[in-house]
Design a protein that fits this description.
Elements lengths: L5 H33 L1
């Protein structure tokens, strides 16, 4: 079943990677604004 649907796995992998990158950018933006407010 997994070998017959490689496209589905690829879409899930891209979706997960996109969510991780989005979370990292959101976290870095929070840290940036937090440090900016401290100054």
């Amino acid at each position: 079943m997994l070998e017959k649907s490689p496209d589905m796995i690829q879409y899930v992998f891209i979706f997960v990677a996109f969510r991780i990158i989005y979370n990292l950018i959101y976290a870095f933006s929070l840290i940036y604004f937090f440090c900016y407010d401290n100054k």
